[in-house]
Amino acid sequence: VQLQASGGGLVQDGGSLRLSCAASGRTFSSLATGWFRQAPGKEREFVAGISFSGGRTYYADSVKGRFTISRDNPKNTVALQMNMLKPEDTAVYYCANGVGSGNYYTTNWNRWGQGTQVTVSS
After folding, report:
1. For a designed S-S bond to 49, which of 21, 38, 58, 81 qualifies (C-beta 3.0 to 4.6 A apart)?
2. Could you give the 3-state DSSP secondary structure of residue 28?
3. Ordered per-residue pLDDT tens for the chain, 122 residues
4. Measuring CA to CA, how many Å separate 48 from each of 29, 82, 88, 121?
5. Are 2 and 96 in contact (CB under 8 A)?
């Protein structure tokens, strides 16, 4: 499975963006998928995850209530809708997938896409 993230850009404080992760391969619908981000000088952090069926979702505390992860298995895509963006959300965002629940701790995140830059100006 190969992953391709897109949808990043420059947005003002309080604005919205929608990221998309497109996957190739027939196993996509059997894998949990998640979004991670890495800001300059900081470690990569988990943002959101979704189970293979889409029935369970998980979020970092910092994005709960603002971000929504969803998936469309027939189209092999996972989206991250980001609302009420803040300057501290500025980072390169990556999608990843693997076997597990979609929770950061219980998923083997072993496939990664290239990142897409999100910049939130104040």
Report:
1. 58
2. helix
3. 799 999 999 999 999 999 999 998 878 889 999 999 999 999 999 999 999 999 999 999 999 999 999 999 999 999 999 999 999 999 999 999 999 999 999 999 999 999 999 999 99
4. 17, 11, 16, 22
5. no
